[in-house]
Amino acid sequence: GESVGLHLPTLSVQEGDNSIINCAYSNSASDYFIWYKQESGKGPQFIIDIRSNMDKRQGQRVTVLLNKTVKHLSLQIAATQPGDSAVYFCAENSGGSNYKLTFGKGTLLTVNP
Amino acid sequence: DGGITQSPKYLFRKEGQNVTLSCEQNLNHDAMYWYRQDPGQGLRLIYYSQIVNDFQKGDIAEGYSVSREKKESFPLTVTSAQKNPTAFYLCASSTGQGWGTEAFFGQGTRLTVV
Fold it and tell me: Which of A53, B4, B52, B91 is 20 to 30 A from B108 via CA?
């Protein structure tokens, strides 16, 4: 079936380095994507979103890239900090009247001091 | 403060019992959702509601029931028919309008069957 998945289940980086978290999606009808951050024992927090009419969107220290040709999404975190350590999920929404979000399994990011 | 409140934070249930998880939002959102999260897994959709007095099954609705009598409330009942209810349950809401709709999450309820 169609789903959202992640290439890497874990990612370990040094403090100050840039992090890149990847996500593959297979639903060609998806037109809205979100990255969430989830700290242990808490609910997911919105980081950044992107719509399918865009290739790139920047936030504070974060950038999301969308490659519709290969159905690939990535989250780049600049100057990674220990507080960035968490599980990161990508989610997709196929739009229209469908309000459901489909989530990937997540990537655990660990930032080493 | 505006947001989504889930209660309780921790819940213990004996086998064969039904339990109800509370979710309240004061964001004036039309759409509300319930997700289940198992260790090391992503979020799976249980039920969602786009408007008061209406709700739809998600991907894993068996053994669960919901109601949406008020816009701000979307309680989830885990029934005895749910064979493996131990999990982290997350409630979310969104405006449900327009192209693309960000969901805001509560802090979750951890349910354990004892």
Answer: B52
